[in-house]
Amino acid sequence: MSRHKISLRVNGQSYELEVEANRTLLQVLREELEMTGTKHACERGDCGLCTVLIDGVPTKSCLALAVEVDGREVTTVEGISKGEELNAVQRAFIEHGAVQCGFCTPAFIIAATAFLKRNPHPTEEEIKEAIGGILCRCTGYRQIIDAILDASRKV
After folding, report:
1. Is CATH 3.20.20.140 correct for 3-76?
2. 91-129: per-residue pLDDT in tens?
């Protein structure tokens, strides 16, 4: 398998890597960069649990090849807070009990953070659409929606 040199910024830090052409961004994040906040689940883009931001756009990292993100900015859940201080979405998830088992939480937080930057005063229907590609088996979504609504009032 041929290897390709790529450069990318992840959570504000620059990386130069050699990757195989078929390696996904998810694999590189978890295995090469040891950023395990982005979850490995279906590998088909069905569940959305591997969602990261690529140039500010929520993207399923299991579907993005690492070579496709050469020269781009990637943000994972590890990179959305400022040091030890949680952002408004993270705090709201805790306050509303929207974390349950926690496996889907990073993807929801990433998607909600990006969504609220684009739409700081959303309706409940807009929130449902924004998080529609991420599956949760524990919460029934009510706490997640309430947390995002609450965060929108604090952003």
Report:
1. no
2. 999 999 998 888 999 999 999 999 999 999 999 999 999
Cα distance between residue 25 and residue 102, in whole Å: 21
Instruction: Supply φ then ψ for residue 16, to 5 degrees.
Output: -115, 120
Domain ranges of the chain: 3-76, 88-154
Q: Hey, what are 122's tokens?
A: 């959303």
Pair of tokens at residue 95: 């306050």
DSSP structure class, residue 7: E
88-154: CATH number = 1.10.150.120
Q: How far apart are the first and last CA of the chain?
A: 46
Query: Tens digits of per-residue pLDDT, 10-41?
Result: 999 999 999 999 999 999 999 999 999 999 99
